[in-house]
Amino acid sequence: MVKSNLKIIACILILGCAYLWNTDSPLLWGDEAGTAIFGKNILKTGVSFGFDGRNLLVFDNCASVSTSLLSKKIPWGQDYIAALSIFLFGRSTTTVRILFALIGIAAFFPLHAVLKKRSGFPGLITMLVLLSPCCFREMRVIILWCCYFLLFSYGCMTAGSSPKNRGFSCYPYAPRYFFIHISSQHSAPWDHSFCFV
Fold first, then answer.
1. Which of 62, 103, 105, 173 could form a disulfide with 146 if both were Cys (CB 3.0 to 4.6 A apart)?
2. What are the backbone angles phi and psi of residue 27, rounded to the nearest 5°?
3. pLDDT mean values, one per 10 residues, the chain (197 residues)
4. In sequence order, what DSSP letters do the residues of 100-129 get, joined into one string?
5. Which residues are registered as beta bridge partners of 56?
C-alpha cells in the first residue's frame, strides 16, 4: 500500500514539474490572451467583457466579441477559471496558466482509478497518457480542454459503478461536452502529426 502510494506521488510530482515548468514561455497565444483579458475584466465587472480600458480584444477580427464587447465564446467557464487564477496567483503569463495546469494534473486521479482495474501499471500509464504531446500541450494552455478531460475521466471512472453507489455522475454529459468542445477547437489534439494517444 505504501509502495503504491509512493508511486502515485512520484507520478504526480513528475506531472506537476512537467505541467508547471516553463509556463511563462511562449507568451500567451492570441486566444489565450483573449481569455486572460476576459478573466481580468471578470474581476472588475463580473462578466466577460472585451475591453479593459486599455486593451481591446480584436483577435480574429473581433470574432470573439459581440457589438457590446461581451464574449461570444460559450461557455464562459474558461474566462472564470482565468479570473480565479489571476485573483489567486497574480497577473502574468505563468500565473494565469497555473490553475489550468493544476486542473489537468487533477485528471490523474479518475484516470488512474479507471486504469487500476485494468492494468498492472496504472500510475505509469496514466502519467504517460497525460504527458503525451496532445494532452501535454492542451493541459497547459488557457482553454477548457483540461476541465473536459477531467470530467471525461471522472465519467469513465463512475460508468461501471451501480447507480445507487454512483452519486453525482457526469458520465452521460462529459463525453458529449468533451467532443463538442474538441470539435469546435481550431486545433484539436488529434490533428497534430505527433499525437499518439
1. 103
2. -60, 170
3. 86 92 81 84 87 75 75 79 92 89 90 85 89 80 77 75 50 48 42 35
4. HHHHHHHTHHHHHHHHHTT-S-HHHHHHHH
5. 51
